[in-house]
Design a protein that fits this description.
The complex is a heterotrimer of chains A (350), B (260) and C (268). With 350 residues, chain A is of the alpha+beta class. Chain A has eight helices and 20 strands. Chain B has a domain of 174 residues: MetI-like fold, CATH 1.10.3720.10. The chains are: A alpha+beta (350), B mainly alpha (260), C mainly alpha (268).
Chain lengths: 350, 260, 268
Amino acid sequence: MDKVIIRLQNIHIEFDDETIIENLDLDIKDKEFVTLLGPSGCGKTTTLRTIAGFVTPDRGDILFDGVRINDLPPHKRQVNTIFQKYALFPHLNVYDNIAFGLRINKKPKDEIDEKIHEILEIVNLKGYHRRSVDSLSGGQQQRVAIARALVNNPRVLLLDEPLGALDLKLRKEMQIELKRIQKQMGITFVYVTHDQEEALTMSDTVIVMKNGLIQQIGKPKDIYDEPANAFVADFIGESNILDGTMIHDFLVNFDDAEFVCVDKGFGENTPVDVVVRPEDIEVCEPDKGAINAVVKIVTFKGVHYEMIAQSKNFSWKIHSTQYKPEGSQIGLNIIPEYIHIMKKEAGTAN
Amino acid sequence: MSRIFSKIYIFLVFFFLYAPILLLIFFSFNSSNSNVAFNGFSLRWYEELFHDEEILRALLNTLIIATLASVISTIIGTAAAIGLSNFKKWKKKAIMNVTYIPVLNPDIITGISLLLLFVAFNIPGGFLTVLLAHITFDIPYVILAITPRLRHVDSHLYEAAQDLGATPVNAFFKAVFPQLIPGIISAFLMAFTLSIDDFVVTFFVRGNAFSTLSTVIYTITKRKIPLSINALCAIMLLCVLAVLIAVNIFDKRKSREELK
Amino acid sequence: MKSRVIAVPYVIWSGIFIIVPTLFVGYFAFTDSNGTFTLENISKIGKYANVFGRSIIYAAVATVLCLIFGYLLAYFMAHLKEHQKSLCLVLLMLPMWINLVLRTQALQNILMDNGIINKLLGFLNIPSVKLLDTSFSVILGLIYNYLPFMVLPIFTSLEKLDNKVIEAAQDLGANSVNVFTKITLPLSMPGIYSGIIMVFIPCLSTFVISEKLGGGKVYLIGNVINDMFNQNYNFNVGAAISLVMMLIMIVTLVIFGFLDDETKEGIL
């Protein structure tokens, strides 16, 4: 589980005078479900295609099992890709689509037959082998694409936002399916998405990217609880991000109040970014908390109430199971563990 | 490496396609009447071209026929396309198959079948028969050009117009027709081009006295070939180029406007 | 908009000018000059069997050559950058707008005994070759005139190919040969069929090209029909021969999938 199967070293990719990927270093561990997460244009798909072989880096190395594969063309790499719009062969039926890779590798006929029926069961498409591609629904086409890739027993499966075209319910079902298949077959999955909820649900490791640079790598819970910078904090889950001043270790000032916190090493009187999750804010009676605020908007979200409350300097987003009507005065408290301090990033002031 | 091979191949093919024509144009500037020996630069053939009554008359005929045929065929064809879209499936299919006949038939068959028609009804070959023939082979292309556009017409606009008080006819002309205009224009241009270019069909139905540009070129080149034909070719190529450039500029201007 | 009546003028027109003339071809084919039913015309067709054969062979050879050279061109063009592609498309279509007779005349000038090709050979001290009035010149003329008609539908077909499908094939292990034979070629078949139809049928029925480039030596079925109608005025036998040509055409259309919608679109 800890063996590195793919290593990207110093990858630099430019296109049309624009730098897409800048000095990327990335290790992907064997049998892991790894997700590249980030907004459009952050370079996650380009990274995926570099691993697949459809993009050649201008600088840097791609190592597979320790062997440099930069010059290996896509059809010789031991990876298979699931494309965003499936890219099924329109002139072949389901059986022939799935058989394609096996036939190229000249596998014997009965072996092919056996494998195809096996994989159809795994993806829940038993009996569909004679169907034509255009007679299938989006979800079914997706599963054919998955079967077509998996039947070749790749060491690594690359998935390029495969669930984007599906409706919400189907998407959630497929997320569970994919996770199950990954565990069952013991294949390394490298998954690309811009949906942070999806990433947190499915992954063993999440790699957050922005503008061609890695922002943070970690387990879903770690990234959620300890975002490395304001971007990650903002991108993952919901956050309140505001300007603060680190007075000294363990003490920070923001929104005209002083708070004990658990971070140190920022120096004295240093401007910092402060991140607090909406669900980590405690609502209490006015003047009983560190900050006073007026409730502006209350929305019922089922699981909790979402409140926007305006304090002297900041508009706080709060998730609470308590109901406070619009216009009421409230007090806010935050315990030290829930205050996240990060170095100031250019352009994140509120 | 294969990039270079592909560029060389493409170049060779286009060289093959253009060399004879460019050579023809080159010799249009020949001072002597030869297609093989160039004896000096001269514009005499262009002058002769503009004085050649036979060719000028044929040109006039061609323009009149092409204009009339394309206007009439566009009107009938557009009406047909709209009407046919409302026909029941089998009727529509049957008529569409008939429509395909002039498209798929070799020109020569279209030509002789119309000739037989005119012979059987004692209509002498001339302006009328040529016009009728041109309309006949133009209409199918108009229908085939407009029918796909009809699918993209937003019928909600038609209903919205009526909802706001327009009669069905009014609604059609104010809400649907404007959407069809680009399609109609391109169908018209296609019909016009087809008529200008046609040789075989015209050749069979024209009788003895009526010539269009293409048939007059044919008869002239059967005799000794004066180089005014070369000059004609040069001018025709220039016209086609001018049209293409104009269309290109018009298209680019349109897309620039749409981006605004 | 929902009107059906506006299509009536066309229905009538097509009846008079498309259906009736076609029926007339049949009528004239099966009657003699007095209008009495006869099978004589049909039997006279036998005389022209070898001309039919020759025409089919010429058309087939020209079509196959157009297919080979045309597919290559379409393939290379499809892989060009956008602006180069449009330029090539325009260059490809331009000759189609120049009169058939002029185009053929241009080719004739080059192939003449004292034309430019022989002149160049003369420079290299090679004796002049008889290029005109041969099967070679006629086939060359056919290819010269109809090559764009093969290239365009194939090019359109190749353009429609989703590049991701090719990437998927490569991803699954296909090398360039595999990609071509298993993906590109099968998916460009509709274009190939359209191209074959658009080249074979005009080649089969040509008379201008065989007349200008074949002298009297290459006599094809188009020439026979032309003679029947414009010289001998033997409309009956002419109609019979035309009927056979229509039959050959229908067979070709059926074979190459005229019934397929995508092929139909390609023809336009």
